[in-house]
Write a structure and sequence with these properties.
Length: 109
């Protein structure tokens, strides 16, 4: 991230963050850690894909997203471990941003 920021000197948007099955939570955690440690302006992190889908080339389904496949009623279940990780990172980052405001002493991640 530092290298990309140095090259363009613009805030970053991190995209294409998807992973399959049990790797979803560790990958999201890793991305957030790298963003905090890089000390560069990150405008956002786009979790992709947000919803599970069938493979383009076959009828195979692998869990990728925060939301599962649609059921017969069109409803999607939430993958709770990923939802909890995303919410925890939101809270953590909000605290870091608040501590970085003028008049506050920043805390390390």
């Amino acid at each position: 991230m530092q290298e990309v920021w140095q090259r363009y000197q613009r805030p970053l948007l991190i995209a294409e963050t998807g992973a399959e099955e049990e790797m979803r939570v560790p990958l999201v955690r890793y991305i957030f850690e790298q963003a905090v440690q890089a000390h560069v302006a990150v405008e956002g992190i786009c979790h992709y894909p947000i919803a599970d889908y069938r493979s383009w080339s076959e009828e195979k389904h692998r869990p990728f997203g925060l939301l599962g496949m649609q059921d017969v009623n069109g409803c999607r279940s939430i993958y709770e471990p990923l939802a909890l990780e995303l919410r925890g990172q939101q809270i953590r980052l909000a605290g870091l941003l608040k501590d970085a405001e003028p008049g506050h002493q920043a805390v390390s991640a």
